[in-house]
Design a protein that fits this description.
The structure is a single chain. By secondary structure, the chain is α/β, with parallel strands linked by helices. Helices cover 39% and strands 17% of the residues. Helix 12 runs parallel beside helix 20 and helix 13 packs parallel to helix 14. The longest helix is centred in the last third of the chain and has 36 residues. It binds phosphoenolpyruvate (PEP) and manganese (II) ion. Manganese (II) ion (MN) binds next to loops.
């Protein structure tokens, strides 16, 4: 901390003409008051707990709390009070540190002979830092709440007593100075923390911003004072945390251990150490770190050094195209034929997949075929058909590009460009595609490792494409029973390495429509964000990949099972099928709930518990209110909860009144 701070703290007051009231513990004349004076208008409080309560309820705008002294180290009492306050849920910011030099004097009534002093009064931490003096005096030590109180008591009770206190306190009490600067450590300094509530911090910053606007417009001739950096103070518990903090160069201010937290305290984290704290904030099982201020923005190193963009440690990415969204909990199903065969075919199938509930439409126009004699796709002409079908059904379209020259014309109409498995490592194609300004669906090559696949994605991101979706579509193994081997483990590995959305393609992985649902379920189970599925209504006539195409009805069943909603073109009949599937699920769940109620009745009887439990019933009602908050706000959730509670009580054999309690 620099000594510009006091000036700064005063100019930080929320309103220029309203005094910034700063509470402190102690009496006028104490070091606390001196610290408070440097931040605003001092308001005394008898105890630290009382002071912090006053701050949290807004009785004062700020508070100064002594944290550390050079001579005595950690000041346990005020910091324990702070720990209790934030542990109780109060949010407080440490916005500045004020160093107050404390010179202590030995003061006694006029005429007292230093040799005669029998009692020395002061505050315990002060007594601890004046051991040399106390040893010389050989007097009895009496502890007081603060140093100013010691001076007043000596003044009122008279000699042969002396107080160790500040010079101001001695003079205010009318005492004579027997000896100056009596601390063992000279010069001694107490570091006070300025505490504010987030509300006050926000108000103060707004005011400071208005001031600087004035300054910029030349209306205020005063020199702008750059705000001092706020100390980053954090509350921690646990040995591992303490070790990481210490290693990162933080100043550790430990408090005495407790049975369930033997190592605990505050730490002041220098800015340059913030990135080293990344691992700390994400570790599970330990109590959270409580920042007394805004937590720093961690710049975390990527998970794989060579792939800074793809493996950057950041929240999950969402790729969005209109209503289509995938990633970070948003799920997508892209469905459609392997290839666009005719204008009529793509419109027909587009309607079918939209009705089922697909969120995107696929269809190849350039087909990478193993045999040069196989159908190669209708080319760019078919893109117009695909796009029009997508627009008609409200679905974005996904289509593959195989060569750099195709990228620009395809990107003009397609919503998402697909890089096929065979081109996963075609770097020129990746670079060209990255620059096309469209989201990209990157299939994993059947001979690429997870890292090579992510490296291909890195090419896309490095080339300027922020919207990359990864797709596992089966790799080549010794197995011939399935077309590919869907690498579920690879999906999990990729999931742990990247923030990008991951999709699975159960169609190309299995090669057989019967196995598509199973692989689709396995993929959701492994945590994919979406699926891409081939669908054909006349698979026996398909020009490409007929055997693996799901029938539209199969897609409907599958998407109902996965909880997707039928598309907007869904007929009454289609939506009723989805409702039927939902009722089936609800019926099964209610039956399970009732069976659990029967069992809990037996367990309650064995344990001697009553059947009805008001608190539990209230918790059930609250749960339904939360889960249904958006879908059925108001009384509906409560009615449903009451109905289920009533049915449950009947199942438990309750014969009494069923009115909700
Ligand atoms: C496709 O999706 O049509 C396709 C050819 O897939 P892959 O590149 O995964 O073989
Ligand atoms: Mn295909």
């Amino acid at each position: 901390m620099t000594n510009e701070h006091p000036q700064q703290a005063r100019t930080n007051a929320p309103e220029p003409h309203v005094p910034f009231r700063v509470g402190y513990q102690g009496q006028p004349g104490s070091f606390g008051e001196r610290a408070a004076l440097r931040a605003g208008l001092p308001v005394p409080y008898p105890s630290f707990d009382r002071l912090l309560r006053a701050l949290t309820v807004g009785e004062v705008d700020g508070a100064v709390l002594p944290a550390v002294t050079r001579a005595a180290g950690t000041l346990v009492e005020p910091l324990e009070s702070l720990a209790r306050t934030i542990g109780g849920g109060a949010s407080l910011h440490v916005t500045a540190e004020i160093p107050v030099p404390n010179r202590f004097v030995l003061a006694a009534p006029y005429g007292t002979d230093p040799e005669q002093i029998r009692e020395v009064l002061s505050q315990p931490p002060v007594l601890r830092q004046c051991r040399g003096l106390l040893a010389r005096l050989k007097a009895e030590v009496v502890e007081t709440a603060d140093t100013a109180a010691a001076a007043q008591r000596v003044a009122s009770e008279g000699g042969p007593r002396a107080a160790i206190c500040s010079e101001e306190a001695a003079l205010a009490a009318g005492l004579a100075l027997l000896e100056e600067d009596v601390s063992d450590v000279r010069p001694n300094v107490t570091r006070f923390w300025v505490l504010e509530t987030p509300d006050v911090v926000a108000r103060r910053k707004e005011h400071a911003a208005q001031r600087s606007d004035l300054e910029e417009s030349g209306l205020d001739a005063g020199m702008p004072i750059p705000p001092p950096p706020e100390p980053r103070v954090v509350w921690f518990a646990g040995a591992r945390r303490a070790a990481v903090l210490a290693e990162a160069g933080a100043e550790i201010i430990s408090l005495p251990g407790e049975p369930d937290a033997p190592i605990r305290g505050f730490a002041i984290v220098p800015d340059k150490s913030c990135s080293a704290m990344a691992g700390l904030s994400s570790s599970g099982g330990e109590p959270p770190l409580l920042w007394l201020g805004d937590p720093p923005d961690f710049v975390r190193p990527p998970r794989l050094h060579g792939l800074p963009r793809v493996t950057e440690v950041r929240p999950f990415s969402v790729v969005q195209v209109g209503l289509f969204a995938v990633g970070a909990g948003r799920r997508a199903v892209i469905a459609g034929p392997c290839t666009v065969e005719s204008e009529e075919q793509i419109h027909r199938i587009a309607k079918a997949v939209a009705r089922a509930g697909a969120t995107g439409l696929r269809g190849g126009i350039f087909k990478p075929r193993t045999s040069p004699y196989a159908f190669q796709g209708h080319g760019i002409e078919a893109l117009r058909w695909l796009k029009e079908a997508g627009v008609e059904c409200g679905l974005p379209v996904v289509t593959e590009v195989m060569a750099p020259v195709q990228v620009e014309p395809v990107a003009r109409q397609a919503d998402v460009l697909q890089i096929g498995a065979r081109n996963c490592q075609n770097y020129d194609l990746l670079k060209e595609t990255a620059a096309a300004g469209r989201p990209v669906l990157l299939k994993r090559g059947f001979g690429t490792t997870v890292e090579e696949w992510l490296s291909a994605a890195e090419y896309l991101m490095a080339g300027g494409c922020g919207d990359v979706m990864l797709c596992e579509r089966g790799i080549r193994t010794f197995e011939r029973a399935t077309r590919g081997t869907l690498d579920i483990g690879g999906i999990l590995a990729a999931r742990s390495l990247t923030h990008l959305p991951i999709l699975a393609d159960p169609s190309h992985a299995s090669g057989r429509r019967e196995w598509v649902p199973g692989l689709a379920r396995a993929s959701w189970g492994a945590g994919v964000d979406g699926l891409i599925i081939e669908v054909h209504d006349r698979p026996e006539e398909a020009l490409c990949d007929g055997p693996q195409a799901l029938l539209p009805a199969d897609l409907e069943t599958l998407l109902d099972e996965f909880g997707f909603l039928p598309g907007s073109s869904g007929s009454v009949e289609r939506i009723r099928t989805a409702i039927d599937a939902t009722d089936h699920d609800i019926g099964r769940l209610v039956a399970r709930r009732l069976e659990l109620c029967r069992r809990v009745a037996v367990a309650k009887r064995d344990a001697g518990w009553p059947i009805r439990d008001e608190e539990r019933e209230a918790a059930v009602r609250r749960r339904f209110a939360t889960v249904l908050a958006e879908a059925a706000p108001g009384a509906s959730a409560e009615r449903l909860a009451d109905l289920l509670i009533g049915l449950g009580l009947e199942a438990e054999g309750w014969k009494g009144d069923l009115t909700p309690r």
